[in-house]
Amino acid sequence: MLHCFAISNLTAPERRIVEGYKVGIHLYPHSVFLHFQKDIPTACGATLITDQSIITSANCLYEVNIRNGKITAYFGASVPINANVKRQVELFSIHRRFNAETGKFNLGIAYLNKAVPLKNEIQKIPISVKLPKTNEALHTTGWGKDVPGKLPDYSDLRHLKATKQRTISPRQCQNITKSRMTPAFWCTISINGHHYHGDDGNGLVNSENQLIGVVSFMVNDITVYSDVMREQLWIYTTVMDLFKKMCTKRKMLY
């Protein structure tokens, strides 16, 4: 936990999981549900990386930024409305190289108004230092729609779902998506479950329970992620910068 008097080490289209399988939050305790209160309420996913900061996609935060919205993060519940731990996003930062047209560096860090209690259902996740191999099985989680066509569709009533994905090579991804793939991206195809609207920002995780990337967009059934492994310095620096800004902000209130 970071305190204002002490600094510790930082140990496009449709996107919502359909045809995945329901899971308990205790199996994926790093998963975070983000609810955006603005003119049209929306939702995104995120991943807990410290007890007071989360990583998500830049496009989620960018939309709130331009509409001056409010973000609530839900922790420790398979169905968000049942969460006993909720936090407000106090500050956030979007990757300086984020490109909304290409989806490149689609990463953002959000700093919470208060640290969350780490327990069985709420856990931070480390960032992987090992690149995944082609055809490696990975997984993502998200709050997909339970009943297709059901109206009204309240995102905070959805149950957490998981999807299994398989990595493909940059060349294969480029051939299918017709988009230029760089080391800033990872691509997967579905083994079980597809992403849909609302899954932006969810984490791509390996079998060792380490974070690989963040859901950015989908093209022709291919999910494209922003890489986090090569951005660890940016992540660490951004978390510390937000921490310092929050301390300064709070000192001004006293």
UniProtKB/TrEMBL annotation:
One of its GO terms (molecular function) is serine-type endopeptidase activity. Keywords: Disulfide bond, Hydrolase, Protease, Serine protease. Residues 17-240 form the Peptidase S1 domain. GO terms for biological process: proteolysis. InterPro entries: Peptidase_S1, Peptidase_S1_PA, Peptidase_S1_PA_chymotrypsin, Trypsin_dom. It comes from the Eukaryota. PANTHER family: PEPTIDASE S1 DOMAIN-CONTAINING PROTEIN, POLYSERASE-RELATED. This is Seminal fluid protein HACP007. It comes from Danaus plexippus plexippus. The lineage of its organism: Eukaryota, Metazoa, Ecdysozoa, Arthropoda, Hexapoda.
